[in-house]
Amino acid sequence: MVETETPNWRPMWEILGIDMEKHDMLLGALPEIYKKIYIDAQKSRPEGMGFFEYVVGDIHGIRVSELVKAQEEGKKVIATFCLYIPDEIIVALDAIGVGLCGGTNFSNYASEGLLPANTCALIQSSLGFGLGNICPYYAIADLIVGETTCDGKKKCWEILGNHKNVYVVETPQCKDRPQAQVHFITELKALVAKLEEITGNKLTFENLKAAMEKIQNKRAQIRRIYNARMNNPVPISGKDALLVSQVAFYDDPDRQIQMVGKLADELEQRIEDGVGAISKDAKRILISGAPMAIPNWKLHHLVETKGAAVVAEETCTGTRYFESEYEIKGDTIDDLIEVLANRYLRINCACYTPNSSRKEDIIRQVKEYKADGVILYTLSFCQPYDIEAIGLEKALKEEGIPVLSINTDYTSDDEGQLNTRIEAFLEML
Ligand code: BJ8
Q1: Which residues line ligand 1 at a C-beta cut-off of 6 Å?
Q2: What letter does residue 2 receive in the DSSP assignment?
Q3: Nearest alpha carbon to residue 249 among 22, 9, 85, 45
Q4: pLDDT per residue as tens digits for the range 243-292
Q5: Alpha-carbon distance 301 to 280, whole Å?
Q6: DSSP 8-state class, residue 292
Q7: How many Å apart are CA 204 and CA 199, to the nearest integer?
Q8: Is 52 within 8 Å of 315 (Cβ atoms)?
């Protein structure tokens, strides 16, 4: 992790009501994990990763201080958990969006007794961060926006709502139906009304259009990183690309446009110069499945320490975040909201039925990223992704695509077994 002098953030955390003892433990452990995974295990990293390293190195500091300052100036902080909640609406209303999610089991102690043991790691972790007062992004949020995707999350909002200001968007279940579009538009308008009430600002055609342009630009920069990953040798490791995506969820969109854009420039130059982050002969792996919230770097680390390269992620912390571009067209707010609804309903998530386009996305991406094999990644006790993985494994094999299914959690208990299975899979490719 970059050794830079960081200001003393303790007074800020104390004002936010952070449990300092637990927080010290959390931040105390992170640099070592980061060093092992990112510094010691990698060579030939792009220089542009320095910025992302700095952001992670001060994960609860500088960005939180920006949010505190923005709140003092009257802005609101809106926290979300799912790609289905449009950033565009939050930005248009001059609020700040932060993606909240838990990628470590460190926080699970705080959700113990509130969730059954057979709850997915992501929900256990997220709820623990929220209730344990160890995440300043939770502490500072003026509103937490949930959604009705999987059952575990639905129940999580009820528990969280006893302690925080929570609003739930009802995402439709059969997203391909015409009535789902009508319903989602109604829900998005209700979200607009809620956010107008919280922010005191009014949605206009102009501010929504400007926000859509900004968010599309942010996504376009991330797409450039992914486009670069289609090359051989791959100019950036999967681990580093994952970090870029994870940071994108909570950093300032304008800064992201600039810094991700700068990194993309560097990667494009690396391609021209034939510089790779991982050997040209490395096996190329596409990972598909559940999102990987920061600091969940487990699977990428296991794959890349075996000499392979993760070249893309068909996940919400991967391609689902930036694919489904849209044309900004229309003359009214309603027109723009319809464009947004159609775009978001195209995100292929296992919580919806049917979700057959996900298979098509994976097959297309295997070709685009020239992947030698696919790893289907599911979190233990996540039924939607688990069930889809069975059908996808069969379907991909029928297409002649080598596939490995991995079901895991945030612990390191299964690393020995996973190492053996991943090694065998890579040898077979
Ligand atoms: S659009 S993937 S961000 S819902 S792993 S909590 S599904 S039990 S996260 Fe997601 Fe939106 Fe879909 Fe993307 Fe439930 Fe499964 Fe846990 Fe999950």
Answers
A1: 82-84, 120, 122-123, 149-150, 152-153, 290-291, 316, 347, 349, 351, 379, 382, 384-385
A2: -
A3: 85
A4: 999 999 999 999 999 999 999 999 999 999 999 999 999 999 999 999 99
A5: 18
A6: -
A7: 14
A8: no
